[in-house]
Amino acid sequence: MEQTEVPKLRCQRIGCNATFTEDNNPDGSCTYHDSPFFHDGMKEWSCCKKRSHDFSLFLEIPGCKTGKHTTEKPVLAKVTPTPTPKNPVSTPTAAAASNLSSKESCPRCKQGFFCSDHGSQAQPQAAPAKSQASAPAKKIVDINLPQTCKNQGCGQTFKEKDNHETACNYHPGPAVFHDRMRGWKCCDIHVKEFDEFMSIPPCSKGWHNADQAS
């Protein structure tokens, strides 16, 4: 009698997306995030306060909480962003302005000599040497090595030997966040809730890509 393979379930916690079985789901096997929030183009996780302007990099931030995998979608709490205090702009004082004026009229300063009243002249700084960027090294990949696809909306594990031009279902993007709406420009679908946004089905097919898009 052949042994029936136990079907794998997909974890619904934000930031996990791993597959598991009920028989192999120990505590601590899942790493995930709580609710995200978006404000003025910034994406931030409410749990660890890590943030990014780029949505792809935002989703790459490793989960900060651990627990068991679950098939139940999390209830996202409404989070309001904390305003970032702005650094006060300093203005030159009257004394500094007066010192600058007297320095410009000082005959020793004008000739480039040291002046005890106004300090030494600033030495010219040498221009930094231009660094020549080297070409990136070609990546050698084992065709049997499991990799995680970095295409937006995919996140599947694949092997290069099984990769082909229609293996990946993904969103070319970009992701759009505007007036509390979240969506994809590529397929022109927009929703209000983040979990609904993450459930929008991919609209394009292509090759899996394990390299983060620049």
TrEMBL record:
Coiled coil regions in record: none
Alphabetical GO biological process terms: defense response to bacterium; defense response to fungus
PROSITE patterns on file: CHORD
Highest taxon listed in the record's lineage: Eukaryota
Keyword line: Metal-binding, Repeat, Zinc
Keyword Zinc set for record: yes
Start and end residues of each CHORD domain: 11-69, 149-208
GO molecular function: Hsp90 protein binding; metal ion binding
Transmembrane feature ranges: none
Gene Ontology CC terms: cytoplasm; nucleus
PANTHER family the record matches: CYSTEINE AND HISTIDINE-RICH DOMAIN-CONTAINING PROTEIN RAR1 (PTHR47895)
Name of the protein this chain belongs to: CHORD domain-containing protein
